[in-house]
Design goal:
With 267 residues, this protein is α/β, with parallel strands linked by helices. Helix content is 53%, strand content 13%. The radius of gyration is 21 Å and the shape is globular. InterPro entries: GDSL_Rv0518-like, SGNH_hydro, SGNH_hydro_sf.
């Protein structure tokens, strides 16, 4: 068995939120590490932290990852940046590219993603969904640039059928459920295996270690969900209102097509 060092960098998704097990969270990265462990001697280092933004990954997690000297490293971050008023495109691009480049220079196999339309999963109205997706679209452009420059493996979540299934998501519809984490781990395992690093595919079947129920969902909503949405509302509320007004003004100023006037007829 060969020795493989695996470092996982990112936010709550990589930290495992949405896939609870006794004593904490598990998540897709742990599932992938366990799968690799069936054919390799694996040293797994999960540095991901709930709430992390690109700056946290670049300045806090990356130095630890470099000390681990990973053969494989995942970098999945940026969604928290899109939901903050501190959104700064040049800074985010720089932090993401510096992180990926530093790992690439070690000869690390990089695991990244392209994001889906989160607003569609949340069920947001178009007036809020479109501005949010414009930020997600920018993140995807940066990940595209990183992939073109440094290579690696990646999963396009928008092209993953499970993303549009309710069962893929936990109660908050932001973090994957156990099934979602398993699907993501399986997608990366398949690419690693096809790339020559023998890796059995994690099962997509729940292991029964945790049974979701309305009590646990309610507990999450009271203790975590409501406070989280409250913090995001205070941070993003003014921005969302401005975006809504801007779009409304744009629609009001848009000229009415001639054919629309003809169809409507005189009133």
């Amino acid at each position: 068995m060969s020795y493989v060092r695996f470092a996982a960098l990112g936010d709550s998704t990589t930290a495992g939120v949405g896939d609870p097990v006794p004593g904490g969270w598990r998540g897709w990265a742990r599932l992938l590490a366990d799968a690799l462990g069936e054919t390799h001697d694996v040293s797994f280092c999960n540095l991901a932290v709930s709430g992390a933004i690109t700056g946290d990954v670049r300045h806090k997690q990356l130095p630890e990852a470099l000390r681990h000297q990973p053969d494989v490293a995942s970098v999945i971050v940026g969604v928290n940046d899109t939901m903050r008023s501190t959104w700064d495109r040049p800074r985010i691009r720089t932090e993401l590219l510096e992180t990926v480049e530093s790992l690439h220079d070690l000869g690390t196999t990089l695991l990244t993603v392209r994001y889906h339309d989160h607003g569609r999963v949340f069920g947001l109205p178009g007036v809020l969904r479109r501005p949010l997706y414009s930020r997600i679209d920018f993140l995807n452009d940066v990940y595209d640039e990183a992939f073109e420059r440094f290579g690696g493996l990646r999963v396009d979540l928008a092209e993953t059928p499970e993303v549009w299934m309710r069962e893929f998501w936990s109660v908050d519809r932001l973090h994957p459920s156990e099934l979602g984490h398993r699907a993501l781990a399986r997608a990366f395992a398949l690419q690693l295996d096809e790339g020559g690093m023998e890796c059995p595919l994690p099962t997509i079947v729940r292991d029964g270690g945790y049974e979701p129920n309305w009590r646990s969902d309610l507990t999450w909503m009271v203790t975590e969900g409501v406070p989280w949405f409250g913090r995001r509302a205070r941070d993003l509320g003014p921005w969302a209102a401005r975006m809504a007004v801007t779009e409304a003004r744009g629609l009001a100023r848009r000229p009415v097509p001639v054919h629309a006037e003809l169809v409507g007829g005189p009133r």
